[in-house]
Amino acid sequence: MKAYTGNGRRVFAGVFSVFGFILILVIAVPLLRMLLVVDATELSRTAADNEVRSAIILTLRASLWATLAALVLGVPLAWILARHKFPGRRVLEGIIDLPVIIPHTAAGIALLSVWGRQSLFHRFTGVTVVGTEAGISLAMFFVSVPFLVNAAKSGFRLVDERYEKTARSLGAGPWKTFFSVSLPMVRKSILSGSIMMLGRGISEFGAVVILAYHPMTAPVMIFERFQNFGLQYALPVTVLLILISLLVFIGLRLVEERRR
Amino acid sequence: MIRMEGVERNLGRFSLRDINLCIAEGEYFVLMGPSGAGKTVLLELMAGLTTADCGRVTGVNGRALGFIYQDYMLFPHMDVFENIAYGLKVRKMNQEEIRARVDNLAEELRLLHLLRRNVRTLSGGEQQRVAIARALAIRPKLLLLDEPTAALDRANRLRTQKLLRRLHGLTGATFVQVTHDFEEALSLADRVALMMDGRLIQTGPPDEILTRPVSRDVADFMGYRNIFSGPVRQGRMRVGDWDLQVPLEESEFAYAAIRAEDILISRKPLESSARNHVKGRISGVLGYSTGAEVLVDAGVELVVGITRTSLDEMGIRVGDEVVLTLKVSAIRCFEH
User: How far apart are CA B245 and CA B228, in angstroms?
Assistant: First the structure.
């Protein structure tokens, strides 16, 4: 066997570091560059712009609604997928993953065919989500729910089923067992899944723009300003959205850390 | 009384088949068998934590029962107190009562100083006592223990056995314990069931299983170190280059088993009738805390158990010529 020399180790560490550094550059340089080229007074004027403000707040709020809905609907599904083997489970898991794979504009079109003005749903109820905040949330939900469900599912899979059996042996019913044992034990996975989903929701453009051009979310506004007025006009909104997103996620990650 | 009748359960890899079992109130019942025999699943079936494919389990439903898994399954997001109190909170008992009962148990199990500790910081022995306290808190009429001592070192294992015996006396509950260690089964059980490959092979008082195993596999599991096989003609089985006198007249194929302790070792033949004497040469000595096993080459290798004292007195050395005496009455014969 060849000796694992100090020299070999240095080359190994060097190559890995260089590769990692290139990756970081690809992500960080465009973001940093935006911060450098944007004019500070321009940025503060944009921040004071009501249209921009309401777009950003709308984006955050709609994504939060989507995430909350996913918590209610997705966590039970994650538990079922983690705990039970049944025919068709793989198919269900595939369906959950679909939104990640398909183009998000396609997701928007698909949603439109069910919830749009030409759909059966609209014909019977007269209700449409097109052009509403509910529509925006729905689009965000559709494309980002896999992050939460999959995180919760792997969380539940890691929890030994015998914890649940122990709780049951001590007299806890299924609800009590779930809320006092299963759920607290995967709190961390669910929290980080929620953060991922929230972030994915905020950044969603393709599906949202098809379901609701107005009211305008921040990503749609960035697109619109870029289309109509050019890069210079899109930049301040972009920077603002990035900064606010960063703040929100750093805050959430801190909460997550503290809970450990 | 717990009764299992014709219980079967398919587990993919193997299945539990034809389980018939009766456990009396207040009995200390030990379910014994090699790893992977299906003991844990049988325990879960008894507790109703798993359902049988067919057959009936009666006498457990709706009763307060405690279930202790081998690795304790202490809830990691609760401290020691909350773990012990879990079953009481589920029963919506009031705070003072919970406090009193937990304190009581904690004192009994030497856990008082640990009540506010995170369970992940406890030693194996402490974790186990918490698991026991948590199960006993609900005053179960039935306590099911899945290999409670398997993960412990010898000293802690003996301490736990003593504790379990004491708790059994104290609570008057029915204890059903799983173990793969027959010494432990012998020291604790009123009655033992031996399980192999998903079937109950033999059930009875520990002494009976030790001295009257029903099959070769049971004898092997119960520590019969010498097991021979072959046809039996006129009460004799050919072993190596000599005839072993066995308590069986004729058989096409049989097993003959004798415990290491039931073989006598001496320098000269012992005067006696109806005994098997065989000459051999010592090929090895394995020392244990309680005694030693002497390996003797007599055409086949025989394992002879002796005490430390006799080992020293006889001055046994590898290569020595000795005479072995195998009492016919100590030999067990099986045809399967």
Answer: 12
**Structural contact between residues A111 and A138, judged by C-beta atoms closer than 8 angstroms:** yes
* B-chain residues near A184 (CB < 8 A): 77
Backbone angles phi, psi at B263, to 5 degrees: -105, 125
Answer yes or no: do A172 and B86 touch at CB < 8 A.
yes
DSSP B62: T
Per-residue tokens: B104 = 């009581």
Q: What angle do CA B126, B131, B133 make, to 5 degrees?
A: 95
Specify whether the CB–CB gap between B117 and B81 falls below 8 A.
no
pLDDT digits (tens, 9 = 90+) for B97-146: 999 999 999 999 999 999 999 999 999 889 999 999 999 999 999 999 99
Q: What is the rounded CA–CA span in Å between residue B1 and residue B174?
A: 9
Which amino acid is residue B205, in one-letter code? P
Tell me how far apart the alpha carbons of residues B71 and B74 are, in angstroms, rounded to a whole number: 8
Q: Do A170 and B75 lie within an 8 Å CB cutoff?
A: no
Domains of chain B in start order, with CATH, are 2-216 (3.40.50.300), 224-334 (2.40.50.100)
Please tell me the distance from the alpha carbon of residue B220 to that of residue B33, in angstroms, as a whole number.
11
Asked if the Cβ–Cβ distance from B67 to A181 is below 8 Å, we say no
Do residue B73 and residue A168 have CB atoms under 8 angstroms apart?
Answer: no
Q: Is the peptide bond prior to A215 cis by the omega test (within 30 degrees of 0)?
A: yes
- What's the CA gap between B230 and A11, in Å, rounded? 67
**Residue type at position A150:** N
Listed in sequence order, the DSSP H helices in chain B are 39-47, 80-90, 95-108, 124-137, 154-171, 182-188, 206-211, 216-221, 308-314
Separation in Å, CA of A64 to nearest CA in chain B: 27
The dihedrals phi and psi of B231, each to the nearest 5 degrees, come to -70, 150
Q: Among partner residues A160, A180, A187, which is closest to B73 by beta-carbon distance?
A: A160
Which residue from B160, B192, B161 is spatially nearest to B176, judged by alpha carbons? B192
Q: Which residues of chain B approach chain A closer than 8 Å at the C-beta?
A: 44, 47, 49, 64-67, 69, 73, 75-77, 86-87, 90-91, 134-135, 138, 144
- pLDDT tens-place string over residues B185-223: 989 999 999 999 889 999 999 999 998 999 999 999 988
> ipTM of this predicted complex?
0.82
Interface with chain B: mutation pick from A170, A189, A190, A191, highest number of B CBs within 10 Å: A170
CA distance A88 to chain B (A): 19
Instruction: Give residue B152's pLDDT band: very low, low, confident or very high (50, 70, 90).
Output: confident
Which of A162, A170, A176 minimises the CB distance to B138? Answer: A170
Going across the sheet that includes B332-334, the strands are: B242-245, B236-239, B226-233, B251-258, B332-334
Cβ–Cβ below 8 Å for A162 and B134: no
